[in-house]
């Protein structure tokens, strides 16, 4: 119990530091435009890589407990936006607002400290390490006052996190490299939730998976929403999957969000037509 309190205190100190830097970095002092239940908002985000404009003026928001589907054509900037929101990239312009306060994210650790975690396409798992070692990678629990790794505690926490999400993996001691693609994806999701993420970003969570494994991951996401209050952004290409698990959908096109609608007001045909239509004035 002492270890958990220590970890929380470290995160709280880091969160205060991130928010302090946000106030001191020259960001606009105007009040952020935000609905009362927004937990995350990005305003006028722009990003370019050399001559390539990835994002030109993106405005996106996420409500408390909501699942937002982010769709768009290949190279539309979806992964770039996710990496900005997770602290991996810094925007060239615009600002990110978390729980009503502008934040200056200097890295992934800053984002995690204020409750934002991301499952990237490459999952960031190390095949040679066990399931529990991957779940605690760079997040290890240490016994105090002596700096010993709490291996038994971490194994138990890993097992509990997987069980709570209904992830069927026989042993947390097996190497991650021996797992199926769906199991690996589930381990990455469970790792983020074990770290107390309040905002979860999922970048193509079922890309390159078969139908059976893809459905298993969608079921994990559904259970996650049932059992927690996490807010999430799901990047996807399969519009049927997005409509299955999300409340609202955003279409990213030409460096901007050009569609923002509840999934109940959209159809697969509408989304397909919007993405395959030639770019032009709207």
Describe the protein's architecture and organization.
This protein is α/β, with parallel strands linked by helices and 282 residues long. Helix content is 37%, strand content 24%. The protein has nine helices and twelve strands. The strands form three sheets. A six-stranded mixed beta sheet has the order 6-9-10-3-11-12, sandwiched between helices. α5 (151-164) crosses α6. 37% of the residues are buried. The model is unreliable at 1-12 and 21-33 (pLDDT under 50).
Within the largest sheet, what's the order of strands? 6-9-10-3-11-12
Q: What spatial form do the alpha-carbon principal axes imply? A: globular
Low-confidence stretches: 1-12, 21-33
Distance between the first and last residues' Cα: 56 Å
Number of helices: 9
Mean pLDDT across all amino acids: 83
Strand content: 15-25%
Q: Report on the biggest sheet.
A: 6 strands, mixed
Helix content bin:
25-40%
Give the key terms.
24% strand, disordered N terminus, six-stranded mixed beta sheet, four-stranded antiparallel beta sheet, alpha/beta, globular, 282 residues
In short:
The protein is an alpha/beta fold.
Task: Show the helix and strand layout.
Elements: H1 2-24, E1 38-49, E2 52-63, E3 67-71, H2 78-85, E4 93-98, E5 101-103, H3 108-113, E6 116-119, H4 131-135, E7 142-143, E8 148-149, H5 151-164, H6 181-194, E9 199-203, H7 211-227, E10 231-235, H8 239-245, E11 248-253, E12 256-262, H9 268-276
Parallel strand pairs: 3-10, 3-11, 6-9, 9-10
Antiparallel strand pairs: 1-2, 1-4, 4-5, 7-8, 11-12
Helix pairs in contact: 5-6, 6-7
């Amino acid at each position: 119990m002492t270890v958990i309190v220590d970890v929380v205190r470290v995160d709280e100190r880091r969160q205060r530091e991130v928010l302090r830097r946000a106030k001191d970095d020259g960001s606009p002092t105007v009040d952020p435009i935000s609905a009362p239940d927004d937990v995350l908002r990005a305003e006028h985000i722009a990003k370019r890589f050399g001559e390539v404009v990835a994002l030109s003026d993106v405005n996106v928001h996420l409500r408390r407990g909501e699942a937002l589907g982010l769709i768009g054509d290949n190279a539309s900037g979806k992964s770039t936006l996710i990496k900005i929101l997770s602290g991996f990239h810094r925007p060239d312009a615009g600002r990110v607002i978390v729980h009503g306060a502008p934040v200056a994210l200097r890295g992934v650790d800053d984002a995690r400290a204020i409750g934002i975690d991301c499952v990237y396409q490459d999952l960031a798992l190390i095949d040679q390490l066990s399931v529990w070692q991957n779940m605690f990678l760079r997040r290890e629990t240490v016994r105090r006052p002596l700096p010993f790794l709490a291996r038994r505690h971490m194994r138990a926490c890993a097992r509990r996190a997987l069980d709570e999400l209904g992830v069927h993996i026989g042993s947390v001691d097996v190497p991650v490299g021996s797992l199926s693609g769906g199991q690996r994806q589930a381990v990455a999701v469970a790792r983020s939730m074990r770290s107390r993420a309040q905002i979860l970003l999922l970048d193509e969570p079922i890309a390159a998976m078969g139908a059976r494994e893809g459905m298993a991951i969608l079921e994990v996401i559904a259970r996650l929403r049932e059992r927690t209050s996490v807010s999430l952004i799901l990047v996807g290409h399969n519009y049927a999957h997005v409509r299955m698990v999300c409340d609202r959908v955003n279409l990213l096109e030409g460096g901007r969000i050009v569609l923002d609608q509840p999934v109940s007001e959209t159809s697969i045909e509408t989304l397909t037509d919007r993405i395959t239509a030639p770019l032009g004035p709207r």
